[in-house]
Recover the amino acids of this structure.
């Protein structure tokens, strides 16, 4: 039997990933087997093992496919040499919101991750990895906010740890709400308004400033 070309192998890999998005979304992650995905994709189980070690690896690679472009934007915003860190953070948040609407891959993967990834023992490796993604994201956002303070874009007394936690809670909550009820509001059209309103709260709300007991003595 002739070996597949690189292009054919990539096509098969993308077919498996596309199918996994759909089956995970329909059945939930823990209730989906590699046999389910192989049958839906019209490939053998062996074909899946030719590209992925197991279901956890397949799930993670499915997530990486949408995460990599977002990661590049996040790294730009956290770069200490970035002259407009707050502007880059705004661009990142708006992009994530709008692409969730316009990119079917991102929409399906986030739907699976937020709504159909059960918190049970067999999901441990997936949950652990995404817990680390979350921690890394919070730390990266905190670096972005600290750079924005140095550039005079945010108050010098901003509690960057609390603010970075709020950024991630806000955007995840907004995405989850839209995925659950997409007819409730026009996420793509309102993305800029929503992001600008939230970022204004970091600039103006006293609740995000460090308390007196958090500020080191001179």
């Amino acid at each position: 039997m002739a070996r597949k070309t690189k292009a054919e192998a990539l096509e098969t890999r993308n077919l498996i990933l596309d199918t996994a998005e759909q089956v995970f979304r329909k059945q939930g992650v823990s209730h989906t087997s590699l046999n389910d995905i192989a049958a839906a994709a019209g490939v053998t189980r062996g074909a899946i093992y030719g590209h992925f070690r197991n279901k956890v690896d397949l799930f993670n690679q499915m997530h990486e496919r949408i995460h990599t472009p977002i990661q590049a934007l996040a790294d730009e915003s956290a770069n200490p040499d970035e002259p407009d860190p707050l502007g880059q953070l705004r661009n990142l948040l708006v992009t994530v919101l709008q692409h969730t609407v316009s990119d079917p891959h991102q929409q399906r993967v986030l739907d699976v991750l937020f709504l159909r990834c059960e918190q049970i023992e067999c999901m441990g490796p997936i949950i652990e990895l995404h817990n680390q993604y979350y921690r890394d994201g919070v730390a990266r956002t905190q670096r972005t906010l600290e750079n924005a303070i140095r550039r005079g874009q945010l108050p010098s007394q901003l509690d960057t740890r609390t603010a970075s936690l709020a950024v991630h809670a806000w955007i995840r909550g907004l995405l989850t709400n839209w995925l659950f009820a997409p007819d409730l509001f026009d996420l793509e059209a309102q993305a800029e308004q929503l992001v600008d309103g939230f970022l204004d709260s970091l600039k103006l709300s006293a609740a995000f400033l460090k308390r007196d007991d958090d500020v080191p003595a001179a």
In short: The radius of gyration is 20 Å. The chain has a mean pLDDT of 91.
